[in-house]
Design a protein that fits this description.
single chain; mainly alpha; F1FO ATP Synthase; 3 helices; about 75% helix; elongated
Length: about 100
């Protein structure tokens, strides 16, 4: 096991959110500060990474069309299917945002 893998595993274990849901005497019932923070971070990551992915897909399509303009219908179909899959991940995250509240 390399040092990088070991550090990643330690970091992942330390970031486990199970202590957040432990019963506390000071917190009033029904308030949990970790849920909105987690939802905000998750939605931000999903939207940002989906934007990067869609940019890469569009760039690859532009490059493919520049190389072979005759293959436009097949490339365009793959573009729309790929963008739909990428966007669906963001929409699933958005739905989870409302479920978690």
């Amino acid at each position: 096991m390399t040092k990088r893998t070991f550090l990643f595993l330690v970091f992942a274990i330390l970031m486990v959110a199970s202590p957040v849901y432990a019963q506390g005497a000071a917190a009033p019932a029904g308030t949990n500060w970790a849920v909105p923070i987690g939802v905000g971070l998750g939605m931000g990551l999903a939207a940002g990474l989906a934007g990067l992915g869609q940019g890469r897909v569009a760039g690859s399509v532009a490059e493919a069309l520049a190389r072979d303009p005759g293959a436009r219908p097949g490339i365009q179909l793959a573009l729309f299917i790929g963008l739909a899959f990428i966007e669906s991940l963001v929409l699933f995250t958005f739905v989870l945002l409302f479920i978690s509240k």
